[in-house]
Amino acid sequence: MNGTRFYKMSGSGNDFVVLDGRSVPAQKWSADEIRQMCDRRNGVGADGLVLLAPAPPDGLRMTYWNADGSRGALCGNAALCCGRLAVRLHMVPESQFCLLTDAGSITVRSPDGEDSVEISLPDFDLPRPFTAVPLAAGERWMMFATPGVPHLVIGVDDTELVDPAARGRALRHHPSLGPAGANVNFVGRGPSSDGRWLIRTYERGVEAETLACGTGTVAAGVSLAALGETDLPVVFRSRGGPELRVGARLDPSTVTNVWLGGEGRLIYEGVWMAE
């Protein structure tokens, strides 16, 4: 079949179309073509498009676009998915390798034969309180962090009572978050005493709630630790179901030794028949 071979991947419900850059050039994809492929009715359907290509001498480069066609510096769950797919497609000689992103270089650990993946993230500034917006009912605090991309994290009493579509959309473009805005994450304790936290995310570029957000989970975990509400590492349950694990070290002004663990699962592969 003539067309572009793709791989549909899921990271805790955050889904992506991944292309093998050994046969598909990055410059081929316009914003309109990306939107078409990510469309959930007339395309493959995804939260973003990823192109994974060799980066000599022995690493890979991840180029990421949001579903609306805009370029993203980093997507944690997309990086987890790339880690798993790279090993599956024998794009790297070992299960630990360097992945280059627009936000910096990260290390990937992906044991062969497993869907569990770990990635390191670049150091970033310690989260800071965000006080430009009054708290709504059920909200306890707001923090701002940039683990590769900007995130607003809101501590809430009950994640089930949150309306990410309304509250997230209202905050996503707030002037105090800068011209590009930020993703908005709502974090609360789970119903059990197992130490897990729950998280819901309104994601820019998708402009809707997504089932998981890797960098948002990192921002949430580090914010909770900075506020003294949890120790690291900490486990989150995403809206999509699977767990995400966040580890890091908090220095006086910087977050270092940042690791995100989660799922990188191949759902299916196919051929995109562009018109």
What does the model show?
The protein has helices at 31-38, 76-88, 164-172, 214-226, and strands at residues 4-11, 14-20, 48-55, 59-66, 71-72, 96-101, 104-109, 116-121, 124-125, 128-129, 139-145, 151-156, 183-189, 197-203, 208-210, 234-237, 243-250, 254-263, 265-272. With 275 residues, it is of the alpha+beta class. It folds into two domains: 4-121 and 263-272, Diaminopimelate Epimerase, Chain A, domain 1 (Roll); 124-259, Roll (Diaminopimelate Epimerase, Chain A, domain 1), CATH 3.10.310.10. The chain has a 19-stranded mixed beta sheet that branches.
Set down the secondary structure blueprint.
Elements lengths: L3 E8 L2 E7 L10 H8 L9 E8 L3 E8 L4 E2 L3 H13 L7 E6 L2 E6 L6 E6 L2 E2 L2 E2 L9 E7 L5 E6 L7 H9 L10 E7 L7 E7 L4 E3 L3 H13 L7 E4 L5 E8 L3 E10 L1 E8 L3
Parallel strand pairs: 2-3, 4-6, 12-13, 14-16
Antiparallel strand pairs: 1-2, 1-19, 3-4, 4-5, 6-7, 7-8, 8-18, 9-18, 10-11, 11-12, 13-14, 14-15, 16-17, 17-18
CATH superfamily of the largest domain: Diaminopimelate Epimerase, Chain A, domain 1
The best one-word shape is globular
How many extended strands? 19
* Cα-atom radius of gyration: 18 Å
- Round the mean pLDDT to the nearest integer and report it: 92
Structure described in brief:
This protein has 275 residues and is an alpha+beta fold. 16% of the residues lie in helices and 42% in strands. The chain has two domains: 4-121 and 263-272, Diaminopimelate Epimerase, Chain A, domain 1, CATH 3.10.310.10; 124-259, Diaminopimelate Epimerase, Chain A, domain 1 (Roll).
